[in-house]
Amino acid sequence: MHWIDYASPHSVREAVDLLNEAGGSARPMAGGTDVLVQLRANALPDVNLLVDMKNIPELNEMTMDPEVGLTLGAAVPCYKIYGNKAIEHAFPGLIDCASLIGGTQIQGRASLGGNLCNAAPSGDSIPVMIALGGVARISGPSGDREVPLEDFCTGVRRTVIQQGEILVSLHFPAPVANQGANYMRFIPRNEMDIAVAGVGCSVVLDNGNIKSARVALSSVAPTPLYVKEIGDAIAGKPANEETLKLAGQMAKDAAKPITDMRGTIEYRKHLCDVLTRRSLQIAIDRAKES
Predict the structure, then answer these.
(1) Beta strand 143-148 with 135-140: parallel, antiparallel or unpaired?
(2) Contact (CB, 8 A) for 175 and 91
(3) Which of 30, 154, 217, 218 has the fewest Cβ atoms nearer than 10 Å?
(4) What is the C-alpha to C-alpha distance for residues 143 and 138, in angstroms, rounded to an integer?
(5) pTM for this prediction
(6) Would you say residue 192 has pLDDT above 70?
């Protein structure tokens, strides 16, 4: 590793100024569980400054309002999320992914905001955050802007974040009655903690029928894949096995995977079918209990 400077700002404006002045040679660090690995592997040769976000109050916000919804600062570590009873009750889908990212030590630093900004196609938190209708609040030299999470990742490790900008927080609308969500993945073995395929979904029920649904996939396209067509197709249909089969087939058809050491194209497409049906069933069961 080459020499890298370190800065720990205490405000969003200070962080934005540091990143902007560095002219592309700086990298924000929410938890460091991805960026430090990449630095050690010389995958970020142009980075000369790490800007630590852990001391910025807005990036550590965790506010749950039954009417407005949930706001999570981009640097809130995973253990604080799954250790919060209000979030566990209202957003079990977020607990699914926050408790899966790495091991216990990693969860002491890693954040959902950092997982999102890393923009790996296999990012465990991204599908269910998309399914929950999450919105990213971004701050930069030109002010603040909001981006729906399904539009946030633009390629492998590429996002809508521009030079000098940082992800400040994530917002999720308050769950409605009879709503449930889930994230599920398949990994090749316990020692390889990277999804071969993953599914995040959210459903709202109405008298035994699916009123609305959102489904997103991981590890089967260059970016986490929001399959809007599934929600459109199953809305109004009964929450039964036939409807889940339709959703699974649509997920299989929408997937655009590659073959690599973790799985073949055919295997990943098969997993999209199976995992979508299983994840939707869990979301439906949770919706019935909500």
Answers:
(1) antiparallel
(2) yes
(3) 154
(4) 8
(5) 0.95
(6) no
**Residue with structure tokens 């600062």?**
73
pLDDT digits 0-9 by tens, 109-162:
999 999 999 999 999 999 999 999 999 999 999 999 999 999 999 999 999 999
Average pLDDT estimate for 162-168: 95
CA–CA dist 189, 98 (Å, integer):
19
Tokens found for residue 246:
């339709």
Helix ranges (H only) for the chain are: 12-22, 35-40, 78-82, 85-90, 92-98, 104-107, 112-118, 126-131, 228-234, 241-254, 265-289
Domains, the chain, ordered by start? 5-52 (3.30.43.10), 57-173 (3.30.465.10), 179-289 (3.30.390.50)
Is 248's pLDDT higher than 90?
Answer: yes
Tell whether the model's pLDDT for residue 24 goes beyond 70: yes
Which is it for strands 209-218 and 143-148: parallel, antiparallel or unpaired? unpaired
Q: Report the distance separating Cα 8 and Cα 50, nearest Å.
A: 9
